[in-house]
Amino acid sequence: NAGVTQTPKFRVLKTGQSMTLLCAQDMNHEYMYWYRQDPGMGLRLIHYSVGEGTTAKGEVPDGYNVSRLKKQNFLLGLESAAPSQTSVYFCASSYFLAVDQYFGAGTRLSVL
Amino acid sequence: LAKTTQPISMDSYEGQEVNITCSHNNIATNDYITWYQQFPSQGPRFIIQGYKTKVTNEVASLFIPADRKSSTLSLPRVSLSDTAVYYCLVGEIYSSASKIIFGSGTRLSIRP
Fold first, then answer.
1. Of A19, A52, A78, B89, which is most buried, counting CB atoms within 10 Å of its CB?
2. What are the pLDDT digits (tens) for B44-75?
3. Contact A106, A88 (CB under 8 A)
4. Using alpha carbons only, what angle is made at residue B96 by residues A23 and A81, rounded to the nearest 5 degrees?
């Protein structure tokens, strides 16, 4: 039982490049979330999903897209990376909406 | 959205009880109070959640006064491993993840 797994753990991009972050959970949770955390700050919700095939915007959705084609996976895409998107990205999942979220170890992204 | 205010940092010693207070003056009727713990280079970990009065689990207690405008996370007999950032969240659960707001947290340092 791995919990929430994020890949990759580290990535460096050049401005304008695209990439996809993958989140996988093995707890059969309905709800999944993507957050970003900037240095010395709390987490901010980017997008979330209330079930397979659904997505919704969080607090800071601009510049990101998400997809939930399978219940266990939640993908975060950056179509054209910008330096302002340099951050640590965390994925989380939960059984009930916004309750007792389980977090992954994070992806550290640098955009040069 | 209910904004939370926590001390930026706190120091204590091993074996002491630590109380971290969070202010949330404009908490709404449907809002719950949730606390997370985050170690460096890790995702947050759920500690405890409550609506009113007192909630206790195996790691912490949460005290919420009748007016619910503040809450106190109590960690009994802390150890060095309790050194972490603690986040207080206030918001609706079960209904809308978009209202999840992590503040800047309280950086707790435990000394021998």
1. B89
2. 999 999 999 999 999 999 999 999 999 999 99
3. yes
4. 40
The radius of gyration of chain B's CA atoms, rounded to the nearest angstrom, is 13
Structure tokens, A97: 């909406």
Only one residue has tokens 């999840």, namely: B100
B44, closest residue in chain A (CA to CA) = A103
Tell if the CB–CB gap between B95 and A97 is shorter than 8 Å: yes
Class of residue A63 by CB neighbours under 10 A (exposed 0-12, middle 13-18, buried 19+): middle
Are B107 and B8 in contact, with CB atoms under 8 Å apart?
yes
Using the Cβ of B107 and the Cβ atoms of chain A, whether some distance falls under 8 Å is answered with no
Model pLDDT for residues A3-34, shown as the tens digit of each residue: 999 999 999 999 999 999 999 999 999 999 99
